[in-house]
Amino acid sequence: MSKSLTRLTVPCDISYWSNSAGTLLASQFPLITVLGAKDSPVSFRVCTLFLMLNVVHRMLAQTLFVLGVHAARRICYINETCLHTGWMAALAFCVLFIVFLRPIRGKAYEFFFYTHMALALITLGGAYYHTTTFGHYLWPCFLIWGLDRVIRAIRLVAFNHSYFGFGSGSGTLDATTELLTPHLVRITLKRPPHFHWAPGQFAYLITPGVSSLPFEGHPFTIASYDSTMNAKEITTGTEKSSESPKSYWKELVFLVNVREGFTKRLGHVAAQKGTIKVFLDGPYGQRNDLSGFDSVVLIAGGTGVTYTLPILLDVVEGVRSGRRTCSRVVFVWTVRDSRHFKWVLDVINSAVKLAPSSLTVEIHLFVTGSSNTDWDTVSTDSKLESPGGVSTLSAGLKVSLGRPSLDNILKAETEEARGGSMCVAVCGSESIAGTVRRTLGFSVAGPTSIMRGSASITLLVESFGYA
């Protein structure tokens, strides 16, 4: 009895591999479109991981760029009419890949945003007419893109219905702008009754009067906390003469760095203390539950405080109401100029006062580039006594000149939390995040450290920007 063997042969013809790469490239366009859409069915199911989906979108785009090598086989047929649309799509995709590089994307994000939209449409359109055989891979991309825009429009109407004449309260979403420093704008608006968010989440702000396009959205981290405390409870921890701290519990607050493009135009409006129309889209971002930790360490650099401040307020209110079992929270904030403290210093002081006796709150503020003469510009409930070294503002709140020794702080807190659980949340520059990662390495928070009785540590890292 004999068995027949079938040998699988792989063609050596380069055209076979070229066509296979092109087919694989076309088949991935619907996936890359879904991953890049903010309101796609996938992002609805995992809306808290929206940023992670965006990272996968970028990684897939790089893979597709490599698959574009299949066009090299057709260079000798460059004059054929049927290949013109293919070359147009390939050229647009190559330019898009160059603009996509982080140095360009980070320096001129608005330029990247508009160029990305135009080149993506050219790529899809050119690819569709280039390969009619596999057009069923391309036309769903336009459907997904259109569905994303329809869902986004519905969300805008739902979250901003008062602007569209549905219900009462027309105009209540107007926002006030303040130029806190030449490089920082604070945007404050009343929280809509249906809008709720978790600490660390962000929202897209659509400001037709400031943006280049009417419905251009810009993401900013929500610097305030969605509090459940009543106004009387909040007032007990704030100065009666100051309305600013209260807004961080009951309103939506955003701190925006003034650079180029949109933020520069926003700075001009804030200099006039103008009121702007704002449409809200969100919230987005992951919800971080810190209820199970014995201690929490919050580290921020500059405007990274917009991420850590709401977490601080959440921990204080959670322990105050009995929803949290945390016994210790350490808040570390580094700025270049002591004048920057006035952004939220009153709020931090209020949080310290609102903290119950069962919760130890330590605040460490560091000034890295400020001169001694700037200390008198910091407004606190107790005057700073010394321009150099360490000055105590209130119980548990200290200000120091120079850069923080994050490794010493983290090692000390790890030892303090020995036998328990600790969460470290950081938002700042790459150097700050890198220092925290290195410190909480194998020597401090490795697998064997728990066996030695050390604390179980969870690290949360939030990056600056969205480019």
UniProtKB/TrEMBL annotation:
Span of the signal peptide: none
Cellular localization per UniProt: Cell membrane
Family matches, as InterPro entries: FAD-bd_8, FAD-bd_FR_type, Fe_red_NAD-bd_6, Ferric/Cupric_Reductase, FNR_nucleotide-bd, Riboflavin_synthase-like_b-brl
GO cellular component: plasma membrane
Single GO MF descriptor: ferric-chelate reductase (NADPH) activity
The UniProt record lists the keyword RNA-binding: no
GO biological process, one term: copper ion import
Membrane topology value: Multi-pass membrane protein
Transmembrane segments: 20-37, 49-72, 84-104, 111-131
Main EC class the enzyme belongs to: oxidoreductase
Domain (FAD-binding FR-type): residue spans on this chain: 166-290
PANTHER family: FERRIC REDUCTASE TRANSMEMBRANE COMPONENT 3-RELATED, FERRIC/CUPRIC REDUCTASE TRANSMEMBRANE COMPONENT
Protein family membership: Belongs to the ferric reductase (FRE) family.
Protein name (record): ferric-chelate reductase (NADPH)
Species the sequence originates in: Dendrothele bispora (strain CBS 962.96)
